[in-house]
Design goal:
By secondary structure, the chain is α/β, with parallel strands linked by helices. It contains 5 helices and 9 strands. The protein is globular. The relative contact order is 0.18.
Protein backbone atom coordinates (compact mmCIF):
# COMPACT_ATOMS: atom_id res chain seq x y z
CA UNK A 1 0.00 0.00 0.00
CA UNK A 2 1.37 3.43 -0.94
CA UNK A 3 1.77 5.77 2.01
CA UNK A 4 -0.17 9.01 1.38
CA UNK A 5 2.37 11.08 3.29
CA UNK A 6 6.00 10.60 2.25
CA UNK A 7 9.28 12.43 1.97
CA UNK A 8 8.31 13.94 -1.40
CA UNK A 9 5.10 15.64 -0.30
CA UNK A 10 5.66 16.18 3.40
CA UNK A 11 6.37 19.90 3.10
CA UNK A 12 3.20 20.42 1.06
CA UNK A 13 1.17 18.53 3.67
CA UNK A 14 2.75 20.56 6.48
CA UNK A 15 1.96 23.83 4.69
CA UNK A 16 -1.65 22.71 4.15
CA UNK A 17 -2.01 21.72 7.81
CA UNK A 18 -0.58 25.04 8.95
CA UNK A 19 -2.88 26.94 6.59
CA UNK A 20 -5.94 25.25 8.09
CA UNK A 21 -4.77 25.81 11.67
CA UNK A 22 -3.85 29.42 10.92
CA UNK A 23 -7.37 29.97 9.54
CA UNK A 24 -8.88 28.39 12.67
CA UNK A 25 -6.75 30.73 14.77
CA UNK A 26 -9.04 33.65 13.87
CA UNK A 27 -12.05 31.77 15.31
CA UNK A 28 -10.40 30.34 18.45
CA UNK A 29 -10.76 32.44 21.60
CA UNK A 30 -8.97 30.96 24.63
CA UNK A 31 -9.00 32.60 28.05
CA UNK A 32 -7.15 31.42 31.15
CA UNK A 33 -8.32 30.75 34.72
CA UNK A 34 -5.81 30.63 37.60
CA UNK A 35 -2.88 31.16 35.25
CA UNK A 36 0.45 30.39 36.96
CA UNK A 37 2.69 33.15 38.27
CA UNK A 38 5.76 31.03 37.50
CA UNK A 39 7.48 32.13 34.29
CA UNK A 40 9.32 28.84 33.88
CA UNK A 41 7.32 25.67 34.49
CA UNK A 42 6.25 22.28 33.15
CA UNK A 43 2.72 22.32 31.76
CA UNK A 44 1.17 18.87 32.26
CA UNK A 45 -1.90 17.80 30.28
CA UNK A 46 -3.61 14.71 28.98
CA UNK A 47 -2.72 13.80 25.41
CA UNK A 48 -6.26 14.58 24.24
CA UNK A 49 -5.84 18.20 25.36
CA UNK A 50 -2.48 18.91 23.72
CA UNK A 51 -3.86 21.70 21.53
CA UNK A 52 -4.55 23.77 24.66
CA UNK A 53 -0.96 25.01 24.45
CA UNK A 54 -2.24 27.51 21.90
CA UNK A 55 -3.83 29.39 24.82
CA UNK A 56 -0.50 29.82 26.64
CA UNK A 57 0.62 33.39 26.10
CA UNK A 58 4.43 33.10 25.92
CA UNK A 59 4.69 30.75 22.94
CA UNK A 60 8.19 31.92 22.01
CA UNK A 61 9.53 30.45 25.27
CA UNK A 62 7.49 27.24 25.29
CA UNK A 63 8.92 23.98 23.94
CA UNK A 64 6.68 21.10 22.84
CA UNK A 65 7.98 17.54 22.52
CA UNK A 66 7.29 15.96 19.12
CA UNK A 67 8.22 12.50 17.87
CA UNK A 68 10.89 11.93 15.21
CA UNK A 69 8.43 10.08 12.95
CA UNK A 70 7.34 11.29 9.51
CA UNK A 71 4.03 12.45 11.00
CA UNK A 72 6.02 14.18 13.74
CA UNK A 73 7.91 16.08 11.04
CA UNK A 74 4.63 17.61 9.90
CA UNK A 75 3.55 18.45 13.45
CA UNK A 76 6.94 19.98 14.26
CA UNK A 77 6.80 22.17 11.14
CA UNK A 78 3.30 23.42 12.00
CA UNK A 79 4.18 24.06 15.66
CA UNK A 80 7.24 26.11 14.73
CA UNK A 81 5.24 28.17 12.23
CA UNK A 82 2.77 28.90 15.04
CA UNK A 83 5.55 30.37 17.17
CA UNK A 84 6.45 27.52 19.52
CA UNK A 85 9.77 25.79 19.98
CA UNK A 86 10.12 22.07 19.30
CA UNK A 87 12.01 19.25 20.99
CA UNK A 88 12.27 16.09 18.88
CA UNK A 89 12.22 12.74 20.64
CA UNK A 90 11.21 9.12 20.20
CA UNK A 91 9.98 6.21 22.28
CA UNK A 92 13.31 4.37 21.98
CA UNK A 93 15.71 4.97 24.86
CA UNK A 94 18.35 7.07 23.09
CA UNK A 95 15.75 9.40 21.57
CA UNK A 96 13.95 9.76 24.89
CA UNK A 97 17.17 10.62 26.73
CA UNK A 98 18.15 13.19 24.10
CA UNK A 99 14.79 14.97 24.21
CA UNK A 100 14.77 14.92 28.02
CA UNK A 101 18.19 16.57 28.14
CA UNK A 102 17.03 19.27 25.71
CA UNK A 103 13.99 20.02 27.85
CA UNK A 104 16.10 20.16 31.02
CA UNK A 105 18.40 22.67 29.30
CA UNK A 106 15.51 24.87 28.23
CA UNK A 107 13.93 24.78 31.68
CA UNK A 108 17.25 25.71 33.28
CA UNK A 109 17.46 28.63 30.83
CA UNK A 110 14.16 29.97 32.22
CA UNK A 111 11.81 28.66 29.55
CA UNK A 112 8.78 26.36 29.86
CA UNK A 113 7.85 23.00 28.35
CA UNK A 114 4.59 21.25 27.57
CA UNK A 115 4.22 17.54 28.35
CA UNK A 116 1.39 15.15 27.42
CA UNK A 117 1.67 13.00 30.52
CA UNK A 118 -0.07 9.92 29.07
CA UNK A 119 1.43 10.19 25.58
CA UNK A 120 2.35 9.45 22.95
CA UNK A 121 0.60 6.06 22.83
CA UNK A 122 -1.07 5.76 26.23
CA UNK A 123 -2.32 4.00 28.25
CA UNK A 124 -5.03 6.62 28.56
CA UNK A 125 -4.82 8.74 31.74
CA UNK A 126 -1.69 7.03 33.03
CA UNK A 127 0.88 9.58 34.23
CA UNK A 128 4.32 8.53 33.01
CA UNK A 129 7.63 9.29 34.67
CA UNK A 130 9.00 11.84 32.18
CA UNK A 131 7.24 14.86 33.64
CA UNK A 132 8.34 13.92 37.16
CA UNK A 133 11.98 13.48 36.12
CA UNK A 134 12.00 16.95 34.57
CA UNK A 135 10.70 18.48 37.80
CA UNK A 136 13.24 16.53 39.85
CA UNK A 137 16.21 17.58 37.75
CA UNK A 138 15.31 21.26 37.39
CA UNK A 139 13.32 22.19 40.49
CA UNK A 140 10.64 23.68 38.24
CA UNK A 141 6.97 23.26 39.17
CA UNK A 142 4.55 21.00 37.33
CA UNK A 143 1.38 22.92 36.40
CA UNK A 144 -1.61 20.69 35.52
CA UNK A 145 -3.85 22.27 32.87
CA UNK A 146 -7.14 21.36 31.20
CA UNK A 147 -9.25 23.09 28.56
CA UNK A 148 -13.01 23.14 28.15
CA UNK A 149 -15.87 24.51 26.08
CA UNK A 150 -19.54 23.41 25.97
CA UNK A 151 -19.92 24.71 22.41
CA UNK A 152 -20.68 22.35 19.54
CA UNK A 153 -17.65 23.75 17.72
CA UNK A 154 -15.40 22.14 20.36
CA UNK A 155 -15.26 18.68 18.83
CA UNK A 156 -13.87 15.27 19.76
CA UNK A 157 -11.80 13.48 17.13
CA UNK A 158 -12.07 9.69 16.59
CA UNK A 159 -8.58 8.97 17.95
CA UNK A 160 -7.39 6.66 20.75
CA UNK A 161 -7.24 9.58 23.17
CA UNK A 162 -10.50 11.30 22.03
CA UNK A 163 -8.56 14.45 21.18
CA UNK A 164 -10.40 17.77 21.56
CA UNK A 165 -10.10 20.63 19.08
CA UNK A 166 -12.05 23.73 18.04
CA UNK A 167 -13.65 23.64 14.60
CA UNK A 168 -15.25 26.97 13.81
CA UNK A 169 -15.93 29.91 16.13
CA UNK A 170 -15.23 28.70 19.66
CA UNK A 171 -14.78 30.19 23.13
CA UNK A 172 -12.54 28.01 25.30
CA UNK A 173 -11.32 28.19 28.90
CA UNK A 174 -7.85 26.98 29.93
CA UNK A 175 -8.01 25.98 33.61
CA UNK A 176 -4.71 25.76 35.49
CA UNK A 177 -4.07 23.74 38.64
CA UNK A 178 -1.78 24.30 41.60
CA UNK A 179 2.01 23.98 41.18
CA UNK A 180 3.55 20.64 42.12
CA UNK A 181 7.22 20.50 43.13
CA UNK A 182 9.32 17.34 43.25
CA UNK A 183 12.36 17.01 45.50
CA UNK A 184 15.52 15.87 43.73
CA UNK A 185 15.97 13.13 46.34
CA UNK A 186 12.29 12.12 46.39
CA UNK A 187 11.64 8.55 47.49
CA UNK A 188 9.67 6.06 45.41
CA UNK A 189 6.70 6.63 47.72
CA UNK A 190 6.90 10.41 47.29
CA UNK A 191 7.14 10.05 43.50
CA UNK A 192 4.03 7.85 43.56
CA UNK A 193 2.26 10.59 45.52
CA UNK A 194 3.30 13.18 42.94
CA UNK A 195 1.97 10.97 40.15
CA UNK A 196 -1.36 10.64 41.97
CA UNK A 197 -1.42 14.41 42.59
CA UNK A 198 -0.98 15.18 38.88
CA UNK A 199 -3.66 12.68 37.88
CA UNK A 200 -6.10 13.84 40.56
CA UNK A 201 -5.63 17.52 39.73
CA UNK A 202 -6.24 16.89 36.04
CA UNK A 203 -9.49 15.07 36.81
CA UNK A 204 -10.51 17.79 39.30
CA UNK A 205 -9.88 20.51 36.71
CA UNK A 206 -12.02 18.60 34.23
CA UNK A 207 -14.82 18.23 36.79
CA UNK A 208 -14.97 21.90 37.77
CA UNK A 209 -14.33 23.37 34.31
CA UNK A 210 -18.06 23.60 33.35
CA UNK A 211 -18.90 25.79 36.36
CA UNK A 212 -15.81 27.93 35.85
CA UNK A 213 -16.80 28.38 32.21
CA UNK A 214 -20.30 29.54 33.24
CA UNK A 215 -18.73 32.02 35.65
CA UNK A 216 -16.36 33.29 32.95
CA UNK A 217 -19.24 33.70 30.50
CA UNK A 218 -21.29 35.56 33.13
CA UNK A 219 -18.34 37.90 33.64
CA UNK A 220 -18.17 38.43 29.85
CA UNK A 221 -14.61 37.14 29.65
CA UNK A 222 -14.91 36.71 25.89
CA UNK A 223 -16.53 40.10 25.25
CA UNK A 224 -13.24 41.39 23.85
CA UNK A 225 -11.95 38.56 21.67
CA UNK A 226 -8.35 38.00 20.64
Amino acid sequence: MVRLINGKNIHHVANLAYGLMHLQEFFTHIKGYNEPAEKSCIYAMWHKNQFLVYGIEDKAHLSIQVSTSLDGEIIASVIEKMGFKVVRGSAERRGAVTSTMQMITRLNEGESVGIMVDGPRGPLHKVKNGVIKLAQKTGKPIIPVHWYSPQKTFITLPSWDKMKTPFGDCNILNVYGNPIYVKEDATDEEIAQVRDNIRNQLFELEAKAPELYKEAKKNKLWKVKK
